[in-house]
Specification:
- Helix 5 (about 205-215) packs across helix 7.
- This protein is about 25% helix and about 30% strand.
- Strand 14 and strand 15 (about 255) form a beta hairpin.
- The chain has two domains: about 1-120, 2-Layer Sandwich (D-amino Acid Aminotransferase, Chain A, domain 1); about 125-279, D-amino Acid Aminotransferase, subunit A, domain 2 (D-amino Acid Aminotransferase, Chain A, domain 2, Alpha-Beta Barrel).
- Strands 7, 8, 9, 10, 11, 12, 13, 14 and 15 form a nine-stranded mixed sheet that branches. Strands 2-1-6-5-3-4 form a six-stranded antiparallel sheet.
- The protein is globular.
- By secondary structure, the protein is of the alpha+beta class.
- The structure holds N-(5'-phosphopyridoxyl)-D-alanine.
- The site of N-(5'-phosphopyridoxyl)-D-alanine (PDD) has 15 residues, from helix 5 and strand 13.
- N-(5'-phosphopyridoxyl)-D-alanine binds near residues 181, 201, 239 and 242.
Length: about 280
Amino acid sequence: MKNNIVYLNGDYLSLGDAKISVLDRGFLFGDGVYEVIPCYKGKLFEFDAHITRLKHSLVEISIDYAYTVEQWRQLLQPLIDNSRNQYIYLHLTRGVGIKRDHAFSKDMIPTVFAMCSNIIPVNNLEQGIKGLTLDDNRWRLCHVKSTALLANVLLKQQAIEIDNSEAILIKDGYVTEGAASNLFAVIDGVLMTPPLTHSILAGITRQVILKIARANNIDVVEQEISIEELKNAQEIWLTSSTREILAVVKLNGTNVADGKVGQLWYTLNRLYQNYKISN
Ligand code: PDD
C-alpha cells in the first residue's frame, strides 16, 4: 500500500480516515461485489479480465456502474507501489439507503472502495498444502463475486481449525471449488477442472491456466469431478489470484498419490510464472 492510501467514493484517504455509513447496504446486507486483482511491480495482471468479471457481477445484482477499463485503471493507479507485488481489493456496494430495507431503489449511488495490500509469498510452496472436503452449503449464485461471504468464511475457518489450508467444497457428490479458490485435478493423466456454472466463480487464475495448458499441448478438460475421482487423483491444485497455484498433497488427512507435489504442477507453475513476466 502506498503510504496506507485507500480510495473511497472519489477521495484518496489514509485507511484510518476511510469511513462508511452504517446504512450502507454493503454493511447491512453484504449487498455488493468485489474483485481481487494482482499487481506485480506496478503491472496490473489480467486487468481486462478482472474488470469484465466485475461488470458481470454488477449486472447480476442490478448495479449500474458504467466505468470503462481505462477509468478503473486511472482510479486505482494512485494506490499502486511500483516496487512491490501487491493485490488490489476493489469493492462496490449498492450504496447508502435512507433506512434498513431489504428492497432497494434503482437510483442509489454505489459506494466504491479500493485498497492495495502486499502479496505475501506462500512459504514452502513445494511442500504442498492440506485440503479438507466439506459440504458446499453456499447459495446458488456462486458465479457472482459477492461480498456476502459468510458461508465461505465459515467453511474456510472449519478447515483451518483442524490444520488444513483450504476447504474443498462438495455439492451432490461433485467438487465445485475451494472456499476461496478454484480446483484442478489430474485424473488418469488428464488435467480437469469443473465447468463454469452458477456453482463456481469464473476464476481468472483458472482461465489463465486453461489458456497456458492449451497453448502448451497439455490435455485439459472442463468436466465435473466426483468425490471418488478426487480421492484417487494423481494431483490436486487450488488456484487463486493471491496464492496462484497450490498443490494439495493431503486430502482429508490422506496422501494425494504419493503425498508429494506432482510433476504437472511443476510444469504448470513454471509456465504460469513465465506468463506473469510476459503479460
Ligand atoms: N478469491 N472461487 C472463489 C470462491 C474465490 O473466492 C476465488 C478467489 C476464486 C479464484 O478466483 P481468481 O483466480 O479470480 O482469484 C475462486 C479471492 C482471491 C478472495 O476472495 O480473496
